[in-house]
Amino acid sequence: MLPVSFVSTAHRLNTIIDSDRVMVLSFGEVEEFDAPALLLKRPESLLSSLVDEYGKEAATKLREDAERAFEVSKTKGFQSKTDQPPPSVEEDIKLEI
Questions:
Q1: Where are the extended beta strands (E) located within 1-52?
Q2: Residues 53-79: tens digit of each pLDDT
Q3: Of 27, 34, 71, 72, which has the fewest CB atoms closer than 10 Å, so is most exposed?
Q4: How far is the C-alpha of 56 from the C-alpha of 78, rounded, in Å?
Q5: What local confidence, expressed as pLDDT, does residue 57 receive?
Q6: Is the pTM of this model over 0.90?
């Protein structure tokens, strides 16, 4: 299977929590770009604060789902971008319409 990039605008976190990577925007600017499980390990991350707004029980399930998906991604060769600045459009993100 060829590598594929899929861009989705999500209104519910459970629809993207098992993605290899998520890009979190704030006011149209990229704030975070990494595996959900890695972003959720950082209490100061925007994704983490959004997940926490769902309540303790739902947040726990979302974190578990993200971690499970991350473990699967690692077996497929996923490379994290943690500790790197968010990508610029010119570097990593190419949208084709």
A1: 22-26, 29-34
A2: 999 999 999 999 999 999 998 887 766
A3: 27
A4: 29
A5: 97
A6: no
